[in-house]
Design a protein that fits this description.
The structure holds 2 protein chains of 2 kinds.
Chain A lengths: L10 H11 L33 E6 L8 E7 L2 E7 L12 H4 L1 H5 L9 E3 L5 E3 L2 H15 L3 E5 L5 H13 L2 E4 L6 H11 L6 E2 L6 E5 L10 H12 L8 E6 L4 H4 L3 E4 L5 H15 L8 H8 L3 H8 L3 H14 L2 E5 L9 H14 L7 E2 L10 H12 L5 E5 L3 H4 L6 H5 L4 E6 L11 E4 L8 E6 L2 E5 L12 H12 L11 H15 L5 H11 L1 E3 L31 E7 L13 H5 L13 E3 L1 H7 L5 E7 L2 E9 L7 E5 L37 E10 L19 E3 H5 L4 H8 L10 H17 L12 E6 L8 H9 L7 H5 L8 E7 L8 E7 L9 H4 L5 E3 L5 E3 L9 H5 L5 E3 L4 H4 L21 E3 L4 H13 L12 H5 L5 E5 L6 H6 L4 E2 L11 E4 L1 E3 L5
Parallel strand pairs in A: 6-7, 6-14, 9-10, 9-12, 10-11, 14-15, 15-16, 20-24, 21-23, 26-37, 27-36
Antiparallel strand pairs in A: 1-2, 2-3, 4-5, 4-16, 8-13, 17-18, 18-19, 20-25, 21-24, 22-23, 22-25, 27-34, 28-29, 30-31, 32-33, 35-36
Chain B lengths: L10 H10 L6 H27 L14 H25 L9 H21 L26 H34 L2 H10 L7 H34 L11 H27 L8 H32 L2 H12 L3 H13 L7 H4 L2 H23 L18 H24 L5 H7 L10
The chains are: A alpha/beta, B mainly alpha.
């Protein structure tokens, strides 16, 4: 790597850089935005770069605090796709949608491209790095230690350096992470005396209770949670874990529960305490020290919990008994969306519940110490000091508190009291806009770095390509500043950030007992880091456990008949707002509501009825702290007393010109920290109709299955009996299984099939070909949409924007259909998911109707689509019963990838032009690639050689792909599963995708 | 034939009256023509925008991948059916009442097919590659997919256009010659070309009559086949609401129904404008109305049968489609189709209505609207087929309406030009009905 990013890459330099790359893992080529105008052949061929062959680098995801391992696929010197690192213990090869969209951060057109200084008139001017460093160094020297640093950097060498650097300056540093789970830590302090975030082993748990914790969305380590959850809750050989959710909102996590029980907001803790009480009262053995709790909990009867929460007594009692007997079980709480003013008490109650059930040490593992920030309270403390004029210089590293804190906390005003403010940032964030100097830093894929997301894991990052813009690694900025400013910083004298990191790793190697620092480094780099087991700390109840209490949560604002409790919740796509400028995440639709691009206000249909509010009617939501306007979305998955608004939008800095920026739900919240954290679900709001309407851009047509058997499910009992989905449906709906086809029809079908079998022995179809097939286990699928992101990345799928989504023109080759069941007449509202992509029918209706053979059948059972041949009659789409073909109504290829986002495009996949039809290809480029590799290695294709992008990404491992003709393959076994079915079996299109019915563990006697 | 030929008409009168229609146009005609050209230009500009920016400009909302363009395509193909029915089939059946109207309907057929033929080009995503639908020899050895109903369409439409245009041109030959004889100057020379040097000799007449008969025989099966093929665009697909065996006869009946409707719409004002009321009168309209009643009743039966079969099949997909046709968000379109086609046509049981030209004109407008909506409603089945998640709504916008308007402009432009340039009433066939002039005593 060159020290300086080359903002002007002339020919001489280009060749020089190419020459020196050599064996370094950092390979680059001309991918600067300043185009190289001449075509220059590789005079000196880089050793590890073969045109047309992907190079994979291990790295680490920085899109949330989980610290998942990455495999970055690069082609010809540019990163094209992020996948999970199979060796990384957190995500084990999978990656969530947000993580995959990280690559759009790398290439985002709105990234800050050079240092920018604020002028007296308020505008920003580009300056050189030398000027910027000199300016800041002077300010730091002048500040005399009055330096405030707000850091969003995760735990690692950079954070260590920043900490030491700040300390040397005499300044103060706050680690700031908007979704900090401070209440979980506070409860752990109270109950166990440990100021930690533990790891959770969902895979081991046989009974999972979630008290509003969205562990499949944003809670602690979502991808890891999902992997574990699928392992235990997925149906295997007659067994599965049970998942029960209590909470005011049916979020994605609760949608994956076997039962969701709506509880009044802020009352989940009463249920947890009642469950603990029942367990303690009824059991004979258990941790001895928990007996002290017995008296304390005696007053928390299930009856009382019912009164408080509204959840029936029988359900609480039964949940308690099952929870205790399932062993090990797991209860989780402390999700951002349920972080109310008694969130610490709730988490404490859940800690006790886990403890009395014997889960601590089995499924709740202390000692891992998941990384977290200092909490909202610490930030408020610092900003108060800023307002008091205690700081001369403020440095904000990759954090956006001006956006992520409520306006009523007045962060911006207080922050602006600091005379000189600096942002180290990728994007022109709301916070950067307040600063006097903006220093653009390398994206995680452009720099050397490491991260310690938990004990036992040190995960590495490496530059996978030449920086896209004229940015610097934040570590280099610190070192350059030190060199320039000298004084207390003189000791930070490493030649470069890379050198500093390697030096620190040499120490790490020694600590690990490895004398060969260089070999240790290289091995770690290849593997993606150093991974060991996290230590498990034995846990005892602390004295604080006896202070356990659960007072009613005081609400913020007036309670009244016409007011609601606001739940400002994070979505799995937008997270704390980081997702808001990623076009993929905006367009892929929220997994729960299926809304794209927009903000919305969820309101219960009963309340909407009362107020005569229609879907899409713009409501004014007013709290004591502010008001917003957004369209109503009628949602039955709410407590009727709750309105819910997703977080993440409403920044002024979203993806340019695409859709509305939406509103920021934080504007309604109280900026005062409650117990060190921000209460997201405690504010009372009133609603007012504006009489205006907005069409809601959702991807859902009709949310009901209409008895058509798309996403089938069965009870655990039925699954254990080995029932097929149709038999189970017949039993559930109390009708005999109707044999629709008569013998004559069967004979006709047999005749048709044998005629078809004759046909597939003709011509190019004659030889022995594989038959590609897929199976999707709906008992594992959580609807998280990681597969959708993978498909967007792999297959160059364009985003079309809000206006086009409103016309139903989104291009998602794979979409997650979310159907509702029940919800009327007191029946519980349940969700069903169905990932739908081209079914690659054996008897495909799309093929014969194409007048030009653009849709045709390949010898290995795929529905080919020849983009170049397509004239766009769209007949194939009309005739597709699954409606999985997508038409390029406009030249989306020209609008969806503004430079330099186009650098992400996968060179193996055609970018489709206007006027042609496109669809899922079963990742044919991967199939052909694997076949070519096998041929070159002179071996037959083995099962698992071909993995489609969706199957690769799926954190639940719900998708299996392979050759159905290979009877030993996983797909062949899966296709024979008793739970297997085809969607619309009766129309005889013979799809290649087998779905395995979801299994629901209902509370049966 | 009392109604076609007045007792005191002579051959010379016929020629004089018909050729009089070819004179210098009046103001009304000029305005109409300019209006038609303006409408056509609207369509043309819309089309150019579609080519420039993409089909996305039109109101397509997946899953409705076909919308107003295909609706209008089928509408115009349908219009094109009455002409051949009247000129060829009724010729073979020797129905004398066709004589006065067949030329106009034949012209209508050719222009309607010309209009329809534009749509396969307009509606595809890459209009500049429309010729890939044609089986032309090429280096890549690529043929179109003969299994696709769209390819059948290409053949059906091009065959129909060729035959009906030939039929029209051949039928015109003696009349153009008659007009030529009345013309002077350059116009005479032009008509001379289109008359193929017709002299009206016995020898020419002999060949001409045979040839015309064979052409009529050739055109006859096309009346049934073309719209059957067009109906298979739908019936061959597996979409509920499309996939029905009834489609071919149902579409043919509908086509004739709509075609005759359009004949009313065109002829009732035209006969007045051209002052040929004495040649096309009550008698002809009465017969045309009976044809309308017949085909309208067939449609009535077909509609009823569609609903019955969807109920009787027990197929939930079919049932949903038809339920939504009647009571879904587009109920108004469904009922427009049923009322305009099935019910309005029943008024023609009354002779009073059949012979009241004002009433017929009004009914014909209903027929045009109803038949356009019939195709629109059929295509709207795409809104709610198998996969509920993908269900959507149709949403035509300015581009759809622009093309629709343009198609009417294009059609009207040709028809008006024809009406002023060629005899819209068949001179020689009317003359055949007038008794040969004989020497008589003076009276």
């Amino acid at each position: 790597m060159a020290d300086e990013p080359s903002s002007t890459l002339d020919r001489r330099k280009f060749l020089a850089v190419l020459g020196v790359t050599g064996g370094s893992a950092a390979v680059l080529s001309g991918c600067s935005t300043d185009r190289v105008e001449k075509l220059i052949p590789y005079l000196v061929q880089s050793e590890d770069q073969v045109p047309g062959i992907a190079t994979i680098y291990a790295s680490t995801c920085t899109e949330c605090a989980s610290g998942c391992g990455l495999h970055v696929r690069t082609r010809e010197g540019r990163a094209v796709k992020l996948e999970g690192n199979p060796e990384h213990p957190v995500n084990q090869g999978t990656l969530c949608a947000r993580g995959q969209a990280g690559i759009q951060g790398l290439y985002h057109p709105s990234r800050v491209r050079s240092p920018r200084q604020r002028q007296t008139d308020g505008s920003f001017k580009d300056i050189s790095w030398d000027e910027a460093i000199a300016l800041l160094a002077a300010k730091l020297t002048a500040a005399q230690g009055k330096v405030a640093v707000i850091s969003g950097a995760g735990r690692g060498t950079y954070r260590d350096l920043l900490g030491a650097w700040t300390a040397a300056l005499g300044g103060k540093l706050v680690d700031y992470e908007p979704f900090d789970h401070e209440s979980v830590r506070a409860a752990n302090r109270q109950i166990f005396g440990l100021d930690q975030l533990p790891a959770h082993d969902f895979a081991k748990a046989r009974y999972i209770v979630s008290f509003g914790a969205d562990f499949l969305e944003t809670w602690l380590s979502p991808t890891e949670n999902q992997r574990g959850f699928a392992a235990s809750h997925g149906y295997i050989d007659g067994a599965m874990a049970r998942h029960v959710a209590f909470g005011p909102r049916l979020n994605l996590t609760a949608m994956n529960a076997d039962q969701w029980h709506v509880a009044r907001p802020g009352t989940e803790g009463a249920i947890a305490l009642a469950m603990a009480n029942v367990i303690l009262a009824e059991r004979t053995t258990g941790p001895a020290d928990s007996n002290g709790l017995k008296n304390l909990l005696a007053s928390w009867t299930p009856e009382q919990a019912t009164q408080i929460s509204g959840v029936p007594t029988e359900i609480i009692r039964r949940a308690a008994r099952d929870f205790a007997s399932a062993g090990p079980s797991l209860a989780v709480a402390g999700g951002i969306g349920s972080q109310h003013r008694k969130a610490t008490e709730l988490c404490a109650a859940v800690n006790v519940l886990n403890y009395v059930a014997g889960n601590v040490g089995r499924t709740v593992l202390f000692g891992a110490e998941l990384q977290s920030g200092d909490g909202y309270g610490a930030l408020v403390e610092m900003t108060t000091a800023m307002a008091a004029g205690q700081y001369q210089v403020a440095i904000v590293h990759e954090a956006n508190p001006a956006y992520a804190t409520p306006k009523s906390g007045h962060f911006a005003d207080k922050f602006q009291k600091v005379p000189f403010k600096v942002a180290l940032s990728l994007f022109p964030t709301d916070t950067a806009a307040l600063c006097d100097l903006v220093l653009p830093i390398h994206h995680a894929l452009e720099r050397w770095d490491d991260l310690r997301p938990r004990k036992g894991i040190t995960s590495l990052m490496q530059p996978v390509m030449e920086p896209v813009f004229g940015t610097l690694a934040a570590g280099d900025i610190l070192l350059k500043l030190s060199k320039k400013a000298g004084g207390p910083l003189a000791s930070f004298n490493a030649a470069s950030w890379e050198a500093h990191l390697k030096q620190s790793w040499a120490g790490f190697a020694k600590a690990q007992g490895n004398g060969d620092a260089d070999g240790f480094w290289r091995a770690a780099l290849a593997r993606g880091g150093v991974f060991g087991p996290a230590p498990v700390t034995p846990v005892k109840l602390a004295a604080g456990a006896l202070q356990l209490a659960y007072p009613a949560a005081a609400l913020d604002g007036a309670e009244g008949a016409d007011s609601f409790t606001l739940s400002a919740y994070p979505t799995s796509m937008l997270y704390d707002g980081r997702g808001a400028n990623r076009p993929w995440l905006r367009e892929m639709s929220d997994p729960v509501t299926k809304i794209t691009w927009q903000s919305w206000v969820e309101i219960h249909p009963d309340a909407a009825n009362r107020m005569d509010v229609q879907d899409g009617e713009i409501l004014t939501v007013t709290s004591p702290h502010g008001s917003i306007e957004a369209p109503a979305y009628l949602y039955g998955g709410l407590h009727p007393d709750v309105v819910a608004i997703p977080l993440g939008l409403g920044s002024n800095r979203t993806f340019d010109g695409r859709g509305t920026n939406g509103i920021n739900a934080l504007d309604l919240l109280n900026g005062e920290p409650t117990g060190g954290y921000l209460a997201y679900t405690s504010t009372r709001v009133t609603l007012a109709k504006t009489g205006k309407f907005q069409a809601i851009a959702k991807t859902e047509g009709t949310p009901r299955q209409l008895g058509r058997g798309l996403s089938d499910s069965m009870t655990l009992t039925q699954a254990k009996k080995g029932m097929t989905p149709s038999l189970a449906a017949a039993e559930t709906e109390h009708h005999p299984e109707v044999e629709v086809n008569t013998e004559a029809e069967h004979a006709a079908l047999r005749g048709f099939r044998s005629a078809q079998d004759e046909k597939i022995k003709l011509g190019a179809y004659a030889e022995d070909h594989p038959k590609w097939g897929m199976s999707i286990d709906l008992s594992r699928c959580t609807g998280c949409s990681a597969c959708v992101a993978a498909c967007y990345a792999e297959n160059n799928i364009p985003v079309v924007g809000e206006a086009e989504v409103l016309r139903g023109r989104e291009m998602t080759w794979i979409r997650i259909e979310r159907y509702w069941e029940g919800g009327d007449d007191g029946e519980p509202l349940e969700a069903r998911f169905l990932p739908m992509m081209c079914q690659h029918c054996g008897n495909a209706p799309c093929e014969p109707v194409c007048p030009v053979y653009a849709a045709y059948h390949t010898a290995d059972g795929l529905n080919g689509q020849v983009y170049n041949r397509c004239v766009g009659t769209r007949y194939c789409s009309n005739n597709c019963p699954y409606k999985v073909r997508y038409f390029n109504w406009f030249a989306y290829n020209k609008t969806a990838f503004p430079e330099p986002l186009n650098l992400q495009l996968n060179p193996d996949v055609t970018v489709r032009a206007r006027g042609v039809m496109e669809k899922c290809t079963f990742c044919v480029q991967r199939i052909r690639g694997a076949q070519n590799t096998a041929r070159l290695e002179d071996r037959p294709l083995a099962d698992g050689d071909v993995i489609t992008a969706c199957a690769q990404a799926c954190p639940s491992s719900a998708i299996i792909f392979g050759n159905v003709k290979d009877s030993t393959s996983r797909i062949a076994a899966s296709s024979r599963d008793r739970r297997g079915y085809h969607v619309f079996e009766d129309i005889n299109v013979r799809p290649s995708v087998t779905y395995l019915a979801r299994v629901i563990d209902r509370a049966e006697a | 034939m009392a109604s076609t030929v007045h007792h005191n008409q002579t051959h010379a009168d016929v020629t004089r009256d018909v050729v009089a229609t070819l004179g210098t146009p009046g103001r009304g005609y000029t305005l109409l023509l300019l209006g038609s050209v303006a409408c056509f230009l609207v369509g043309l500009v819309t089309f150019l925008f579609l080519v420039k920016d993409g089909l996305g400009l039109a109101g397509y909302k997946p899953p409705v991948m076909w919308s107003v363009f295909i609706t209008t395509f089928v509408f115009w193909v349908g219009i094109g059916h009455a002409g051949t029915l009247i000129s060829a089939i009724l010729f073979l059946f020797r129905s004398p009442w066709r004589t006065a109207v067949y030329r106009a309907t034949e012209a209508m057929t050719v222009f309607a097919v010309m209009t329809a033929a534009l749509f396969p080009i307009i509606h595809i995503g890459r209009q500049w590659f429309f010729y890939w639908l044609l089986p032309y020899p090429n280096q890549r050895w690529l043929w179109p997919n003969f299994k696709s109903p769209l390819i059948w369409d290409v053949f059906a439409i091009s065959t129909y256009f060729t035959v009906s245009a030939t039929f029209l041109v051949v039928g015109l030959v003696p009349d153009v010659a008659a007009a030529r004889d009345k013309m002077t100057g350059w116009r005479q020379k032009v008509y001379q070309i289109f008359s193929f040097n017709w002299k009206g000799t016995q020898h020419q007449w002999q060949h001409y009559s045979r040839g015309y008969l064979y052409l009529a025989a050739l055109a006859t099966p096309l009346v049934l086949s073309v719209h059957s093929v067009v109906s298979w665009d739908f019936a061959m697909a597996i979409i509920p609401g499309w996939h029905g065996t009834i489609f071919a006869p149902y579409f043919v009946a509908g086509a004739i129904y709509s075609g005759v409707g359009m004949v009313f719409t065109l002829l009732i004002p035209l006969r007045k404008a051209l002052k040929i009321e004495h040649m096309i009168g009550e008698y002809h309209f009465d017969n045309l109305a009976k044809l309308t009643l017949l085909t309208g009743s067939i449609l009535f039966y077909a509609y009823a049968m569609e609903y019955f079969v969807s109920w009787y099949s027990g197929n939930t997909f079919e049932q949903t489609t038809f339920w939504r046709r009647a009571f879904g968000p587009m109920w108004w379109a469904g009922w427009t189709m049923i009322i305009c086609n099935a019910f309005v046509s029943q008024l023609l049981w009354f002779r009073k209505i059949r012979t009241n030209l004002t009433a017929l004109f009004v009914i014909s407008i209903f027929i045009n609207i109803g038949m356009w909506f019939e195709r629109y409603v059929i295509i709207s089945s795409l809104q709610n087929d198998y996969e509920p998640w993908a269900w959507g709504q149709m949403g035509p916008n300015w581009a759809d309406w622009g093309i629709l308007l343009g198609s009417f402009g294009w059609f009207a432009m040709y028809f008006l030009l024809f009406a002023r340039t060629f005899p819209v009433v068949a001179i020689q066939e009317i003359k055949e009905m007038i008794p040969m002039p004989r020497k008589r005593g003076a009276h």
